[in-house]
Hints:
This protein is an alpha/beta fold and 320 residues long. The protein has a single domain, classed as TIM Barrel (Alpha-Beta Barrel). The chain has helices spanning 10-18, 21-25, 28-41, 81-85, 92-95, 97-110, 123-132, 140-148, 150-174, 191-197, 199-208, 227-232, 246-253, 271-285, 305-317, and strands at 47-48, 64-67, 71-74, 116-121, 178-183, 216-220, 237-239, 257-262, 291-295. The longest helix has 25 residues, at 150-174.
Amino acid sequence: MMRQAGRSLPKYRALRERHTFLDMIARPDLMAEITLMPLEELDVDAAVMFADITLVLASLGVSFDIVESVGPVIDEPLRTREQIDNLARLPVAESTPTVFESIRIVRKELDGILPVIGFSGAPFTLASYLIEGRPSRDFAKTKAMMFSDPGAWHALMERLSDVIIEYLVEQVNAGVQVVQLFDSWIGALGPDDMRTFVLPHSQRIFDSIASLDVPRIHFGTNTASLLECMAEAGPDAVGLDWRVPLAEGWRRIGPRAVQGNLEPAVLLAPPEIVIARTQQILRDAGGRAGHIFNLGHGVLPDTPLDNLKLLVDTVHGGIR
């Protein structure tokens, strides 16, 4: 499940009271502990590494914080071509060493038991944080650069793509067996703008990691108008949110795997609703190979643990 090790687990919340996010990602033992934490409670089929989609920005020398109830906050937002040209280029092994060490710990613990999933933010989503300075509703500054200075925009997207490729390669080298590119906010764009300003960079990332021979997932939200574009990027699987029926979304992305697509808020409902909505998605999938049951976005903080367990048990029980 999205944000599998995250905010809904009581044990994680207790740990979070004692440590800031930056404290936790500075310690590979804690990152590994948090990654494994859900497996004590939930009979899920893979482990999702504990990290943040923005950690790769450290390779560009970008200083940022992960602020509770806000998200990533950039110390000095990028607004000019000069700032982009002056970004650092540090080896990811030096800028995010705890990520790779935590992967090695988890892989050793789970080898032969469960696969390990790694991930990175995608260029558009990371660019939006860098330019806006924090999460945004309208992405006005991001789009202003994209439309008014396409040269600067593509220069930034190329720099981001370079470090994302290296970051994912090193994650695979450390032991992850699946990688996921999170373009969480790509739904802010229409299809034409995605094809012009984003798709070439996403394609380069997926092409560059194809030789790693691990499944590659392309994830986004609010992407009802973008599914064909996401498939064109070249992933092995495309994530669907809840705004498109699973069967329709699968038809539109073509012969590849699909990940999704339960509305996360359903898990706040009574158990009978959780079961009914989960069963509906299983029926929509129709038993076809290549369906990764998942939420359409992250687990909400107030989600009852019992409902998470019920969801997993219902999926494993199959259609009935």
